[in-house]
Specification:
Elements (H helix, E strand, L loop, with lengths): L3 H11 L8 H9 L4 E4 L6 H11 L3 E5 L3 H14 L6 E4 L5 H12 L5 E4 L1 H4 L2 H7 L4 E6 L19 H8 L4 E5 L4 H11 L5 E4 L7 E7 L3 H11 L4 E5 L3 H13 L4 E4 L5 H12 L5 E4 L12 E6 L6 H8 L9 E7 L1 H11 L4 H19 L4 H8 L13 H4 L4 E3 L1 H13 L6 H9 L4 H5 L16 H13 L3 E3 L7 E3 L1 H8 L5 E3 L26 H18 L3 H4 L2 H10 L4 H4 L7 H21 L18 H11 L4 H8 L3 H13 L7 H7 L2 H13 L5 H8 L6 H16 L1
Parallel strand pairs: 1-6, 1-7, 2-4, 2-5, 3-4, 5-6, 8-13, 9-11, 9-12, 10-11, 12-13
Antiparallel strand pairs: 14-17, 15-16
Helix pairs in contact: 2-3, 14-15, 15-21, 18-19, 19-21, 23-25, 23-27, 28-30, 29-30, 30-34, 32-34, 33-34
Length: about 725
Amino acid sequence: MKDNSLIDKLQHHFGFDRFKGKQEEAIKNVISGNNTFVLMPTGGGKSLIYQLPALILDGTAIVISPLIALMKNQVDAIRGAQAEDNVAHFLNSSLTKTAIQEVKNDVLNGNTKLLYVAPESLTKQENIDFLKKIKISFYAIDEAHCISEWGHDFRPEYRRIRPIVEEIGHAPIVALTATATAKVQHDIQKNLGILGAKIFKASFNRSNLYYEVRPKVKTETQIIKFIKQNDGKSGIIYCLSRKKVEEIAGVLQVNGIKALAYHAGMDAATRSGNQDKFLMEDVDVIVATIAFGMGIDKPDVRFVIHYDIPKSLEGYYQETGRAGRDGGEGKCITFYSYKDIQKLEKFMHGKPVAEQEIGKQLLLDTVSYAESAICRRIILLHYFGEHYKPDSCGNCDNCLNPKEQIEAMDEVVRSLKTMLEVNEKYKADHVANILIGNRTAAIKSFKHDTLRCFGTGKDHDERFWNAVFRQSMVAGIINKDIENYGLLKVTQKGHDFIANPTSFMLVKNHEYEEEDDSGNSYGGAPSGGASGDPQLFSILKDLRKKIAKKHDLPPFVIFQDPSLSDMSIQYPITSEELQHIQGVGQGKAKRYGKDFVTLIKRYVEENEIERPEDLVVKTVANKSKLKVFIIQSIDRKISFEDIANSKGVEVKDVISEVEAIVNSGTRLNIDYYINDILDEDHQDEIFDYFREAEVDSVQDALDELGEDEYTEEDIRLIRIKFFSDLGN
């Protein structure tokens, strides 16, 4: 039965005539003076569960909240709904001494029903002494997942709340969060001493949200295209680093999108100013670190894009939950590359083992979600202990475009046997090289090319084997050793699998690899002309052949296949547009581009092709200091080892950068370095090979010239010289 007096109070204070979900039951529990645990998704109406009781009960409710921006937003919202401004205040480091005194006077006079306090402010002795003087109706701990080390936003100061509350004086506790697994929930209740609290839990299913995970290939172009297709709609783009936030915001601005940045490194005035512009719709898009949006009540956010995959599924759920809070459309697009996971793993290295263990498990759940071929909702809701019954939600990429799966039982067994044969003492890349029979320097030095398992997986490439390792990890068949970072270990479940193999379905074409530095993309972008216009691709290949013949060069020196493929998608018709094609720099465009853009322009006109509107993605000045540093270092004839050491990278990373520079049309002279490694005869042999070759594959060159004679590095270096000397 409805409590009409409570409905009347809801109508009086907030103008609503009904409660949502379990709000009414939870509010009654708070008013009755009981400890309360509220677990409701973003947009479920958590705030009302402590706001209404605070306005009804005697005394002041102390609301502990983690962010200054969040407090300001909440206080403004309460004041907007009430007659008096002093009904709600916040107490934090952003206030002047005079303002703090005004707040304290209002509280002492009994005018303030809600006092928002940061956990850091709560620990100050002067504030503890002040709060001892007032009548406290209850304590509300917002974003309570911050208490748990297993939560996605752990804050040590949150674990000090309970002893401080006991010092100030006993009152009921209300803990609220939008995201908590069973483990996190227990952690929160135990730490706050409210294990007996009544729990109010709403469904985590947000049926209006569309979930999609995309490969991290030409990400900025994809984002700009998406935003322009959703012109005028509000959206948030999350990045893990402040640098990336600034970079993406800059790229969006130069492409005519109303966007601003938001991160903790900005001064408070700029930060809150940018937030207000977003709320007031002066800008459409905010590019931010995860600090943005906690509790920001903007109902019409139409999309949330994750440029970087979040560190945990709790974080992902909460951040995507900021879309479509009004029940309308909400698109959640996430860009994923396993390289990002490896970066996050590296950041964990050096932390206490227990912390690494937690971080590793949270990341593993994220990888499982990203790489899975089953309904995204099933995985997401299962993670929060909720069973989603339908086989298909009809509102995620996996349900709308089912991914192909292949049987990989045999491959899993081969990979496990290889790990055991090397005594589980090597990382994924080394194990993959053993399987495919790649005689790297490390393989030779450990004599692993003499092992029984060497080359047993040469029917697949390295990316395939990495997918096997990752999906085996998700299945619990192998894991990565924590203390000896990255070593692959076979679990008990893995040993059982070898003894009794069962079906293992591997997701195909779902590797989400990032673009490599030369602009060639793997696992998602076009190779050949398949993803573009096949007719144009074929014509471009003929033109390339003709130009190559004229210059007496192999065709791949003019433009590589991925570049032609990209042209067949983007239809560049000017030299400027051509420079935005992957693998084409200013030098290449100037040297060979004219004939290509003329042909494409004629083709577009003859076939009445409508080109993508956002073809030319303008870029802000290239901030890659590494490229500039490498070019300057090569001019000064500094060895690649010294370049790598000074930048904290590996030699192979330097070679990749040099490949990208040369492939884009810049001429570099690396003879000084090659001469130290290879004698003239060996150099000539590789150089002549590429002169006659039909493709520029390093593996083909190794097969032809002999892996006993040359290393992959030797081939790559001479290939760079070949491109630079003849192509540029």
